[in-house]
Specification:
Helix content: 55-70%
CATH topology: Rhomboid-like fold
Structural class: mainly alpha
Strand content: under 5%
Radius of gyration: 18 Å
Number of helices: 7
Oligomer: single chain
CATH architecture: Up-down Bundle
């Protein structure tokens, strides 16, 4: 493969990454703007713990937010951490997102207090954080360890969000999202090459 082909491949990867992130964020914003016009009626489709109908929220909750401020708070870390998940391989984004969504959603559904509704993309944000921080441990390659250290320096302070604290914040979504990211890192880790 010559340099021209490599450059075209790189441009194609970057375009795919931008398309994925713009698509996700655009959908979140479109849904929140629609929800504003509906007076917050869509928020009922969030995760409702231990309610059968609340299981649907596992799929819908990441796209629903309580306000534009809530959505703005999730947008920037979602874009940055989501892009870092794709930095090595764009295709990693999909299994990481699916695993994190399921683990965060099921954990919230099982362990959050009854009669509550949980919405927001922060479970994904914490999942991407867990994935990026732990991938270095599971792969033990220079690149993955360097990325884990960089993410730890930039976003390590977020880790406190997995603990109970602020009323109205779904720490369960944060905690189980983070654990889902660790699980995804373990499942997707490239096997270490052994010296022969």
């Amino acid at each position: 493969m010559n340099r021209s082909d490599e450059a075209k491949g790189l441009v194609g990867e970057v375009r795919a990454q931008i398309g994925i992130l713009v698509g996700f964020v655009g959908l979140m914003w479109a849904i929140e703007i629609l929800d504003l016009f509906l007076g917050g009626a869509l928020d009922q489709f969030g995760i409702r713990p231990r309610s059968i109908v609340g299981l649907r929220g596992i799929l819908f909750a990441p796209f629903l937010h309580g306000s534009l401020l809530h959505l703005m708070a999730n947008t920037v870390p979602f874009v940055i951490l989501g892009w870092l998940v794709m930095l090595r391989r764009t295709r990693d984004f999909w299994p990481v997102t699916i695993i994190v969504t399921l683990v965060a959603g099921l954990g919230t559904w099982l362990f959050a207090p009854p009669w509550t509704v949980h919405i927001g993309a922060s479970g994904l944000v914490f999942g991407y954080l867990g994935f990026l921080l732990s991938r270095g441990y599971f792969e033990r390659s220079f690149g993955s360890i360097a990325m884990s250290l960089l993410v730890g320096l930039l976003y390590g302070g977020m880790i406190w969000g997995v603990l109970p604290g602020q009323i109205g914040i779904s720490w369960q979504g944060h905690l189980f999202g983070f654990l889902g990211g660790i699980l995804a890192a373990q499942m997707l880790a490239e096997p270490r090459r052994r010296a022969s």
